Amino acid sequence: MKRTLLATSLAALLAPALFPIAAAQAQTSQAEAQVNALEGLAGPQPGARRSGAKGICASGHFVGNAVGRSLTSASAFSGAQVPVVARFSVGGGNPKASDKGKSVRGLALAFQLPGNEVWQMANISAPVFFVARPDQFAPFVQARTADPATGKPDPEKLKAFNAANPETLRQAAYLAQAPVPASYGTVNYWGVNAFEFVNAKGESRFARWQFVPEAGTQGLSDEQLKAMPDDFLAGELRQRVAAKPVVFDMKLQLAEAGDNLTDPTVAWPDTRALVPVGQLVITQVEAGMGGACDGMTFNPVALPAGIKPSADPVLNARAAPYAISLGRRLGEAARR
Ligand code: HEM
After folding, report:
1. What CATH number is attached to the domain comprising 86?
2. Pocket residues: Cβ below 6 A from ligand 1
3. Hey, which of 49, 186, 221, 229 has its CA 20 to 30 A from 55?
4. What is the pLDDT of residues 275-323, one digit of tens each?
């Protein structure tokens, strides 16, 4: 009796201390499962990012405007030039993916703010993401992975996953009707996840950002696509930037009451205010494949004071798999 009591009270005492460890382990295993699933889909690609594997490093600066300053106290909007490290990429875990594919293009940014603050983000050329919840990520990828026996994804498994998770088809539906981008500099990039912007008066607004190309959006027709090689995006951007800086307007889509702040598969109505808050200016592209962006990851919850993550579970699940992918690829690169 005494021993049971002691054991019970010991367990009660330890429970709060042990719970965070158990929760952290559960989080880690989900993140590992996500990265393992990406590796399963792309096959071994030593040294490469497990997603957005094909890409190039670039750099430039960001200048925020008065609208940005009215919405957030973040120093990125002070109006001074903020140095930015950028990476443009093609979706998926294959570093040799074709630039002609109907996957997403990526724009990852790291703003180097005064006082050693950083603001990192990884944006895509679609207004929605493919999963609503992090637990859908690995099964979504696995359902699209070739079965070793047939060399193709199992059609029954894929059908069953899609039927049970219809919201995971919205991104593919968007990409199917969008043309393949002609340039990394002529496509719209969306942040997709919602963030909370807090200004100097403590007033807060939820918003989603996008980067709108000043050159306009330009896609390739089917005819043009046929004549293109599999690799043209990196060379095209180098030439474009050498001639003239490539500019994107950063815009915030402001949420209104009732808008979904936690599900990145749901786009907000087009009627929501879309306000320009600054300009991203890309002034340099690396001549080769490496560069400053290579040894880093773009953690989308690395945020400056004045911008907070929303409760979107997909956003809050991103840091761990990015760190795991970074660790694995740097380890592989070091062993080569
Ligand atoms: C649970 C959800 C997600 C998982 C598990 C995931 C996983 C990953 C991983 C493992 C990487 C490679 C990181 C590295 O090696 O540095 C990556 C990169 C990337 N992800 Fe995600 N991701 C998720 C959500 C998203 C969302 C919502 C977006 C779009 C807003 C996004 C856009 C990107 C982009 C553009 C890259 C390439 C970044 C770069 O150029 O370094 N991801 N993701």
Report:
1. 2.40.180.10
2. 34-35, 38, 49-52, 55, 87, 89, 106, 108, 122-124, 129, 134, 137, 191-193, 264, 297-298, 314, 317-318, 321-322, 325-326, 329
3. 221
4. 999 999 999 999 988 899 999 999 999 999 999 999 999 999 999 999 9
In a domain, 41, yes or no: no
For atom 4 of ligand 1, which residue has the closest CA?
A: 318
Instruction: Summarize pLDDT for 159-171 with one digit per residue, the tens.
Output: 999 999 999 999 9
Domain that holds residue 167: 54-318
The per-residue pLDDT for 27 is 52
Q: 2-42 and 319-335 helices cross at what angle (nearest 10)? A: 60
Residue 283 within a domain: yes
Alpha carbon nearest to ligand 1 atom 36, residue: 52
In a domain, 193, yes or no: yes
Question: What is the rounded distance in angstroms from the CA atom of residue 210 to the CA atom of residue 118?
Answer: 19
Please indicate, yes or no, if residue 115 is contained in any of the structural domains: yes
Q: Tell me the CB-side half-sphere exposure of residue 234, using CA atoms within 13 A.
A: 18
Residue 110 CA, distance from chain mean position: 12
Query: Residues 18-74: pLDDT tens digits?
Result: 445 565 565 559 999 999 999 999 999 999 999 999 999 999 999 999 999 999 999
Domains identified in the chain, total number: 1
